[in-house]
Amino acid sequence: MQPTEGSIVSFMVLVVDDEPTVFELLTRIAQKAFPEATFINTRSAPETLIYLAKTTKLPQLVLLDIDLKTESNGLALLPELVQRFQGKVPVIIFSTDGAKLTIEQAYHLGAVAYTVKPDDLAGWTDYLAVMRAYWYKTTRLPTEDSLN
């Protein structure tokens, strides 16, 4: 179901990021900037895959950090997510790395967008406002029924 003017429809965002501060900022700022969003956090590739295997409700959107300080980075996880979601769930790279080669790799592996993490509170607020405007209000994603 897509939002209509004045309606509140839950919008689940899976955040794959190992920095607790990032997740805390997203959830705190989203209370005002994107109140329809529910953020779920996993901190590594294995944790993400276990979560997805156990959950009955897939996210509408994934924010994937490249620099996971574990045995595998976000770029290694990206093809697995793209294959698992079969193109139904957009995976957005969400990183501090803006290197041209990294950006090219991300798109080659199936990312639908590459975004750079903001570096201040105003930037985070803008980031969430844009995310809400584009992914929640403007685009039409598969319905919840077709995701599961």
UniProtKB/TrEMBL annotation:
Stated name of the protein: Response regulator
4-aspartylphosphate: residues bearing it: D65
SUPFAM superfamilies referenced in this protein's UniProt entry, alphabetically: CheY-like
Keyword Phosphoprotein: yes
InterPro entries: 2C-system_Tx_regulators, CheY-like_superfamily, Sig_transdc_resp-reg_receiver
Record bears the keyword Aminoacyl-tRNA synthetase: no
Organism per entry: Spirosoma foliorum
A GO term, aspect molecular function: phosphorelay response regulator activity
Residues annotated as domain Response regulatory: 12-132
Keyword set, alphabetical order: Phosphoprotein
